[in-house]
From TrEMBL:
Residues 418-551 form the GGDEF domain. SUPFAM superfamilies: EAL domain-like (SSF141868), Nucleotide cyclase (SSF55073), PYP-like sensor domain (PAS domain) (SSF55785). Residues 20-73, 136-171 form the PAS domain. This is GGDEF domain-containing protein. Residues 92-142, 337-388 form the PAC domain. PROSITE patterns: EAL (PS50883), GGDEF (PS50887), PAC (PS50113), PAS (PS50112). Signal peptide: none annotated. Residues 560-814 form the EAL domain. PANTHER family: BIOFILM ARCHITECTURE MAINTENANCE PROTEIN MBAA, DIGUANYLATE CYCLASE DGCP. InterPro entries: Biofilm_reg_signaling (IPR052155), EAL_dom (IPR001633), EAL_sf (IPR035919), GGDEF_dom (IPR000160), Nucleotide_cyclase (IPR029787), PAC (IPR001610), PAS (IPR000014), PAS-assoc_C (IPR000700).
Length: 820
């Protein structure tokens, strides 16, 4: 091939390339939307004429500049999602805001695609100006806001996402309320134009969502179940589809209020029948009354028209006056009203109706009043049932606590009442049944006891279950001042026969306290509290008896309140101290441990014995805080003894059942041990038998947690309660304490000897340790040694000692042992 021929071919190829570039530029510039060629690094490589015109910049100010020149609002790394989409062969679409040379902005929708130009990856981006569409959307939104037709938009799930002001007005939606909440289907009952109820899915909007087809204009009645307002609406629902979707993503419903055109009497009555709401209209001038079918049915009248006397004939006398006054105010002052009135049916039964009325606003004479009428008898009866239930104890069907307090308040406030007495009744030994046989048996005892009290009291007093196993009787005294005592004796007599439960017989008696008004109190709480004080005194003296409140008991009550007040502050005032009774080896007499015993001295009350204040602390709950202090103080004292080299194996601390319930005991114990730097086996916790009968999972988990700490667990005064041996086997305890109650008659009383032998046998058979308390003489010590009991405490060895006294005792024991 000659050089001339080669040059000619190159020239032709160059001409063709130039022609192709001219065609590309012509096409590039012919596109009406801005088109940019962008490098993968974000640099603008080319821009067509539409782009130069749109951005109002010279071409040289754009080419070679980063894309942020045209769109300064792009986020950092904005090219990352674009390039990822292009790598998959896709087109990336995004709405952004571009900027002109003068700083003004305009919205665009950018479509970006990838291509290769001379071996380089490029991006072609077409930007479509959305300003016109946004203006159209704004005009559309303004139209929706000002149009007098209601517009609702529901999403695919049926929730309302938009309502225009007209919709809010037509549907009476309060300002600020949630339109979706107000339009929940359960708040409305909807009817078709013939008054037939419609299911939710048959409503025009839901039908359009379900079918994807327009639901043409349809008249539906909407009854608001809360306001009882009925509105008739003409509704057209249009489904709306997202681009490319085959199911509607929302539905737009356009409606208008046509209630004014639905006054046809027949249709109106049918709808009222379905809603169980009657309608009425009264002309005050002619006294003419019109009633719908439902209103006639409610009142038991057989005529649709009549006069006001006939309507009021169904109301009781006091209610007629209320209705007449409301009608007069409606006519004279335009006042609306809503009344719940009691009436009488044709068959003589009680009727309750709710009547709503208002004057006709468009009546120029102002003499026409209309409204609705609804039978609320069932609703009133249900309210009465609930009121009775709220005043009744469900187990015994007696008055409950609140009800009897209300009744007592009424009697004490009634000047016609010449005297009132309260009997406070508490069942003796009820806890035995409840603990041993369970709560179901306990409930049977309570119900049986209630029946016995009812039979004893009959109609002479009000009876209430005041709580747990406590009952209250309120009776009038008047001239019969002996009635309270007579009723108390009758009640005690009713408990003379044993209760039979689960094939067993239980002797359950009652303790009764009596207080009278006004001498023992003129307010319910004071009277009941004083009767309670008398009941406790009766229980303390001898169960199965009654006791009148007296001035002496009042003084005791005052002393108790004073004690409780001081007791509440005793920990903070550092009024408590601990003494320690030695626990000794019965054979050698050597001290091996000690039990911490609390003592209280108050500046006002003086020295208080534990049996005087511990019970009060239990009742008030202060025992929880006091017990926590005892636990911490005992552990700290044990730490001091160990630091002094005293060979005390462990210290025993009593734990109240209220402590066990009221706090995380294992956590409290762990903190006390950690604070004193003691191992768990340096502490022994003594519980009453009450913890044995609790079958709650928390009880078992607490015992397990304490045992994991290494703490020694024992049951104090074993045998005094009513525990079954099964509980000993179930709970992870280490030992028992033999009560001094059984040791008092040893070794001469055969019954006490037998009980001690039984408890020792139980401990040995279950592998439990046994400590005897209350050892007062040598004969008791020798008996316990022969019984195999190795550890004991009591006045034979020492009373409770101050810490330094106990330390001195142990030092002397060691000195004596050393000299021997």
């Amino acid at each position: 091939m000659s050089d001339a021929h080669l040059r000619r071919q190159l020239a032709e190829a160059q001409a063709a390339l130039e022609a192709e570039r001219d065609r590309f530029r012509a096409l590039f510039d012919a596109v009406p939307d801005p088109v940019s060629i962008i490098g993968y690094d974000g640099t603008v490589l080319d821009l067509n004429k539409a782009g130069i015109a749109a951005y109002k910049r010279p071409r040289e100010d754009i080419i070679g500049q980063p894309i942020e020149t045209l769109n300064p609002d792009l986020p950092r790394d904005h090219l990352a999602p674009v390039l990822e989409t292009l790598s998959r062969g896709g087109t990336y679409v995004v709405e952004v805001t571009n900027m002109r040379a003068d700083g003004t902005r305009f919205p665009v929708e950018v479509h970006s695609a990838g291509y290769v130009d001379e071996g380089q990856q490029r991006i072609v981006a077409v930007a479509r100006d959305l300003s016109g569409r946004h203006e159209a959307e704004l005009r559309y939104r303004e139209l929706m806001e000002v149009i007098d037709k209601g517009i609702l938009v529901r999403n695919a799930e049926g929730h309302v996402t938009y309502a225009n002001p007209a919709a809010m007005r037509i549907l009476k939606i309060p300002a600020g309320a949630s339109i979706d909440g107000e339009m929940r289907p359960e708040r409305w009952r909807v009817f078709d134009e013939h008054g037939v109820p419609l299911a939710d899915q048959e409503l025009p909007s839901f039908r359009a969502l379900r079918t994807g087809q327009l639901s043409p204009s349809r008249v539906c009645g909407f009854l608001n179940l809360e306001t009882r307002r009925l509105a008739w609406l003409s509704i057209t629902s249009v489904p709306q589809f997202a681009p490319g979707a085959d199911r509607p993503h929302q539905v737009l419903s356009l409606f208008s209020d046509v209630t004014g055109f639905k006054r046809d009497v027949t249709l109106f009555d049918r709808v009222q029948d379905l809603a169980h709401i009657g309608g009425w209209e009264w002309d005050a001038v002619s006294d003419h009354v019109y009633l719908t079918n439902e209103a006639q049915r409610v009142l038991g009248l057989d005529r649709a028209t009549g006069n006001m006397v006939q309507l009021q004939s169904r109301l009781r006398d006091p209610e007629r006056k209320r209705f007449q006054e409301a009608l007069a105010r409606a006519v004279e002052h335009g006042e609306s009203f809503e009344l719940d009135l009691q009436g009488i049916r044709a068959d003589g039964h009680t009727l309750w109706v709710r009547i709503i009325g208002e004057s006709e606003r468009h009546d120029p004479t102002g003499t026409r009043v209309s409204g609705t009428l609804q039978d609320i008898t069932e609703h009133r009866q249900a309210e009465e049932t609930l009121r009775v239930q709220a005043r009744t104890d469900p187990l015994t069907m007696l008055l409950n606590r609140d009800a009897v307090l209300e009744e007592l308040e009424a009697r004490l406030s009634d000047p016609a009442q010449s005297g009132v007495a309260v009997l406070y009744i508490d069942l003796d030994r009820f806890k035995v049944v409840n603990d041993v046989l369970g709560h179901a048996a306990g409930d049977q005892v309570i119900a049986n006891a209630a029946r016995r009290i009812q039979q004893a009291v009959s109609t002479e007093g009000l009876i209430a279950r005041f709580g747990g196993d406590e009952f209250l009787v309120v009776c009038a005294t008047g001239d019969d001042i002996g009635r309270p005592q007579r009723l108390a004796a009758a009640i005690l007599g009713a408990f003379g026969e044993s209760f039979r439960m689960a094939g067993e017989e239980f002797s359950i008696t009652a303790s009764i306290g009596i207080a009278r008004a006004p001498e023992h109190g003129d307010r319910p709480q004071a009277l009941i509290q004083n009767a309670d004080v008398a009941m406790y005194d009766s229980k303390r003296r001898a169960r199965n008896g009654w006791q009148d409140f007296s001035q002496a008991l009042a003084e005791q009550q005052q002393h108790r309140l004073q004690m409780e007040t001081h007791l509440r502050r005793a920990v903070d005032n550092r009024e408590f101290k601990l003494v320690y009774q030695p626990q000794v080896d019965l054979v050698s007499g050597r001290t091996v441990g000690a039990e911490a015993l609390i003592r209280w001295r108050n500046d006002t009350l003086g020295e208080m014995r534990p049996d005087h204040f511990i019970g009060h602390a239990e009742n008030t709950g202060d025992i929880v805080r006091i017990g926590g202090w005892v636990l911490r103080e005992a552990c700290q004292q044990m730490r001091r003894w160990r630091d002094d080299g005293l060979p005390i194996v462990r210290i025993a601390v009593n734990v109240s059942y209220r402590q066990f319930l009221a706090e995380d005991l294992s956590e409290t114990v762990a903190e006390a041990l950690a604070s004193a730097g003691l191992p768990g086996d340096a502490l022994e916790l003594e519980f009453t038998e009450r913890v044995l009968i609790e079958d709650a999972p928390d009880t078992l988990s607490t015992f397990a947690a304490l045992r994991m700490l290494g703490v020694v667990l024992s049951i104090d005064d074993f045998g005094e309660g009513y525990s079954a041996l099964n509980y000993l086997r179930r709970l992870p305890i280490h030992g028992l304490k033999l009560s001094q109650l059984f040791l008092q008659g040893v070794p001469h009383n055969g019954s006490d000897v037998a009980i001690c032998q039984a408890v020792a046998g139980i401990a040995q058979s279950l592998g439990l340790g046994l400590v005897a308390e209350g050892i007062e003489n040598e004969a008791q010590r020798q008996f316990l040694i022969r019984l195999g009991v190795h550890i004991g405490q009591g006045f034979l060895f020492a009373p409770g000692l101050a810490p330094e006294e106990l330390a001195l005792r142990i030092q002397r024991e060691h000195e004596s042992t050393a000299h021997a």
